[in-house]
């Protein structure tokens, strides 16, 4: 009937608009039952269950044998880890697989049979589940004693396929690989040529005392290649050249040329190529997201124009405002956008909307999220107005920054004076007194700002919330200190009492005061620009972080399977150890202790070195025949993926975000009461091309489940 058709069109429009909001494809079933199932599947509850399931199955690796459930990682003090009985983690794993089977079944049904065969991710999803379930059955058949579990390496796929942004990022990385491969090949040629030169320069001579370079680094081809590869990361510099340099200073030219060509030219050329190519492919990905949004909005317009209540017009289609209002009431979208669209509809003088007007209404989704600060209170008293003007003026904030700087300087002076004193000789009177004075000023400053700006306006600024929260914490700590130890006085050194000693409480207060000094950032424009760029980057790095977790997880599980049992100090290699090694090869490290066995336990310490220093240590482990030399491929692959490729991709996104922020700063007047929040899609908004009406209609007519009237 007419009523049933109208309800179907309304529900279709609701789903299409929600697809547009989330940049989802509209190529799915659009009958009544499928629409209900589709909205249920993408509901918060269902997606939360799916995310929880992915988290659980990834976390199983920490309790599966070999378990990582120990407090300390030091093999000398670590107690035997708890290993779950056979069947416990397997039961949890089976429940997760059941959730994934329901997930892939619903997805496959909703897209339809034709779209299923075109969707490589869905086919890979099913294949991963089949392999995982087969491996799960084999595991139970062997009573959980098998050494290799293939399904553990496949687990990160569940995280990868659940994020559309991660898929786009991975696709962009995959498209960038050919260009990266050319530079990596050039890097390999550079490495190979210098390896040959090194073997010729540092060949073995008759004088064994002069062969230290040959013995230590260039004994054979694998050792030579390894030494120069580590030198490319600067981890063994200048150690690798010291023996040759001691023999003849001219040998340093070889190492300088290798480092300059490899590090300064080829590695930076790789960064430039990755930035250029990845930016282009990411732009294409965002362009396709924009097309999906426009297509979803246009599909909603087309189905709403088919409503029986809409007057027929052979020349042009229209949508009634009443029908659109019914749709908006049921659509799940940001309240800011919904209110803005509602206001635009109320201001519209006509009763119907054309396709262009309909599309223009939903351009609100593309705009920056703007946060308007509440107005300041209006005081009637002339005295209060003067107070409001004085304490609401930016100069009052500058005064607070000067006071905070003075507090930092005073703390530094006291710390320098007491640096060499024993705790029994330290007098905390001066530090306690100045802390008390400054905290009282911070409290007064906060109260005066609230008086001038009003509580709502004061809390609407993130810097004020940060400032106020730390001030309250400092006040509570100071009151607790006075309650336990009394007021500061000369010789203020009471014994340990309660949870924290006096020195611990004073240190905690001072750390918070130092942290509070970050309040100056919003007042320094360039620093504020850098910080907001980093914060926006953190918000938009979920896809990158997810891919990094996938890489970490896959390499950690692979490392366990490859090296478990090679070194067994009081227990097997733990997943935590593998994660720590991989993490420390990615960032700066302070201290890494690697144990190896050769007649007895010894220690090799790598301190204050960059990421590849751990690789150097691991290569050293391999050189004592603990593990097959082919295992070097594992660590080199990790270095290439994490340090060479992923770090350069991160730099590319960082540069793009910063350049975009800088351009907006140059072309926009500063508005003190407005905050703009950016996403990856909005970052490229100025250079995206709008799809034409012909492109949209052609795509809609290709929809496998939607039959349009025109």
UniProtKB/TrEMBL annotation:
One of its GO terms (biological process) is calcium-mediated signaling. Residues 55-278, 397-658 form the Ion transport domain. The chain crosses the membrane at residues 41-63, 84-102, 122-145, 180-203, 250-275, 395-417, 429-448, 469-488, 508-531, 543-563, 575-597, 609-627, 633-655. One of its GO terms (molecular function) is intracellularly phosphatidylinositol-3,5-bisphosphate-gated monatomic cation channel activity. It catalyses: Na(+)(in) = Na(+)(out); Ca(2+)(in) = Ca(2+)(out). It comes from the Eukaryota. It is a multi-pass membrane protein. SUPFAM superfamilies: Voltage-gated potassium channels. Keywords: Calcium, Calcium channel, Calcium transport, Endosome, Glycoprotein, Ion channel, Ion transport, Lysosome, Membrane, Repeat, Transmembrane, Transmembrane helix, Transport, Voltage-gated channel. InterPro entries: Ion_trans_dom, TPC2, Volt_channel_dom_sf. Gene3D superfamilies: 1.10.287.70, Voltage-gated potassium channels. Chain C. GO terms for cellular component: late endosome membrane; lysosomal membrane; monoatomic ion channel complex. It is found in: Late endosome membrane; Lysosome membrane. Belongs to the calcium channel alpha-1 subunit (TC 1.A.1.11) family. Two pore calcium channel subfamily. This is Two pore channel protein 2. It comes from Fregetta grallaria. The gene is Tpcn2_1.
């Amino acid at each position: 009937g007419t009523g049933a058709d109208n309800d179907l069109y309304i529900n279709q429009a609701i789903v299409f608009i929600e697809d547009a909001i989330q940049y989802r494809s509209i190529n799915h079933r659009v009958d009544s039952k499928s629409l209900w199932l589709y909205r249920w599947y993408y509901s918060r509850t269902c997606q939360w269950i799916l995310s929880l399931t992915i988290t659980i199955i990834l976390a199983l690796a920490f309790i599966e044998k070999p378990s990582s459930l120990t407090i300390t990682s030091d093999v000398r003090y670590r107690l035997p880890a708890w290993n779950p009985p056979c069947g416990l983690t397997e039961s949890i794993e089976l429940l997760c697989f059941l959730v994934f089977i329901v997930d892939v079944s619903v997805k496959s049904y909703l897209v339809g049979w034709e779209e299923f065969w075109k969707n490589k991710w869905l086919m890979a999803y099913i294949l991963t589940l089949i392999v995982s379930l087969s491996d799960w059955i084999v595991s139970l058949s062997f009573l959980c004693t098998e050494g290799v579990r293939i399904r553990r390496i496949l687990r990160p796929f569940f995280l990868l396929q659940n994020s559309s942004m991660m898929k786009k990022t991975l696709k962009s990385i995959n498209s960038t690989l050919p260009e990266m491969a050319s530079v990596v090949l050039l890097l390999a040629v550079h490495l190979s040529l210098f390896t040959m030169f090194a073997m010729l320069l540092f060949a073995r001579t008759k004088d064994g005392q002069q062969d230290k370079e040959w013995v230590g680094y260039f004994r054979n081809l694998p050792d030579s290649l390894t030494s120069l590869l580590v030198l490319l990361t600067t981890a063994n510099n200048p150690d690798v050249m010291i023996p040759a340099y001691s023999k003849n200073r001219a040998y340093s030219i070889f190492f300088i040329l290798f480092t300059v060509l490899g590090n300064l030219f080829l590695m930076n050329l790789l960064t430039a190529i990755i930035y250029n190519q990845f930016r282009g492919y990411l732009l294409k990905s965002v362009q396709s997201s924009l097309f999906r949004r426009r297509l979803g909005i246009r599909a909603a317009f087309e189905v709403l124009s088919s409503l029986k209540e809409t007057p027929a017009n052979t020349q042009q289609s229209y949508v009634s405002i009443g029908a659109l209002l019914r749709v908006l009431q049921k659509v799940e979208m940001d309240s800011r956008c919904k209110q803005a669209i509602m206001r635009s509809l109320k201001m519209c003088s006509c009763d119907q909307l054309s396709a262009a007007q309909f599309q223009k209404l939903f351009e609100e989704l593309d705009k920056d999220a703007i946060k308007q600060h509440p107005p300041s209170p209006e005081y009637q008293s002339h005295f209060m107005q003067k107070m409001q003007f004085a304490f609401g003026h930016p100069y009052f904030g500058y005064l607070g920054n000067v006071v905070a700087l003075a507090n930092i300087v005073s703390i530094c002076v006291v710390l320098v004076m007491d640096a060499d004193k024993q705790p029994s000789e330290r007098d905390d009177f001066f530090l306690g007194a100045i802390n008390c004075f400054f905290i009282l000023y911070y409290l007064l400053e906060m109260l005066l700002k609230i008086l001038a700006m009003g509580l709502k306006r004061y809390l609407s600024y993130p810097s004020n919330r940060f400032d106020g929260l730390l001030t309250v914490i400092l006040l509570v700590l100071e009151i607790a200190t006075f309650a336990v130890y009394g007021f500061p006085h000369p010789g203020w050194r009471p014994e340990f009492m309660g949870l924290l000693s006096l020195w611990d409480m004073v240190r905690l207060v001072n750390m918070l005061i130092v942290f509070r000094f970050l309040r100056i950032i919003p007042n320094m424009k360039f620093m504020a620009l850098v910080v907001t760029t980093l914060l926006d980057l953190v918000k938009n790095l979920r896809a990158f972080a997810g891919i990094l977790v996938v890489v970490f997880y896959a390499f950690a599980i692979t490392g366990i399977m490859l090296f478990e049992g090679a070194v067994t100090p009081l227990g097997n290699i733990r997943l935590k150890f593998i994660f720590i090694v991989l993490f420390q090869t990615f960032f700066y490290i302070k201290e890494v202790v690697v144990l190896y066995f050769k007649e007895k336990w010894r220690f090799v310490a790598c301190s204050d070195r960059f990421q590849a220093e751990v690789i150097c240590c691991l290569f050293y482990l391999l050189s004592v025949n603990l593990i097959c030399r082919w295992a070097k491929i594992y660590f080199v692959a990790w270095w290439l993926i994490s340090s060479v490729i992923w770090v350069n991709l991160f730099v590319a996104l960082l540069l793009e975000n910063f350049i975009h922020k800088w351009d907006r700063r140059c072309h926009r007047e500063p508005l003190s009461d407005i905050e703009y929040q950016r996403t990856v899609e909005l970052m490229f908004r100025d250079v995206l091309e709008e799809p034409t009406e012909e492109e949209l209609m052609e795509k809609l007519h290709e929809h496998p489940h939607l039959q349009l009237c025109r």
